[in-house]
Amino acid sequence: MASQGSQAARSSSASGRNSNQGRRQRTNCYCGERPVLVTSSTAENLGWRFWGCVNYGQIGEECRYFVWAESEQEPQVARLKRKITGLKGKVTTVERMLIMVVVVALVGVT
């Protein structure tokens, strides 16, 4: 895993064009395989996820396919954050209603 992260760091600087091509929803890497989701273990990009060739680092395989996973999903992430904010607001409203019901029930019992 550590070797994949260090290899990813090397390829990230040399693959600016690769990341632009990846934003076009590429389903296969340059050698025809499906990319795999990997988590970087380098100090510079610790924990960041990226799509890379399943053959990356194998002897004789130099596909060099590399795309940061977050760059592909920014619109989805923004949409999900808005949805979470809306759901938090609904939870707050339901909590307030529940408190009012409990208070009314307690007043009615006494």
UniProtKB/TrEMBL annotation:
It comes from Arachis hypogaea. InterPro entries: Znf_GRF. The keyword Signal does not apply. Residues 1-26 are annotated as: Disordered. Residues 1-22 have a biased composition (Low complexity). GO terms for molecular function: zinc ion binding. PROSITE patterns: ZF_GRF. Residues 29-72 form the GRF-type domain. PANTHER family: ZINC ION-BINDING PROTEIN. This is GRF-type domain-containing protein. Keywords: Metal-binding, Zinc, Zinc-finger.
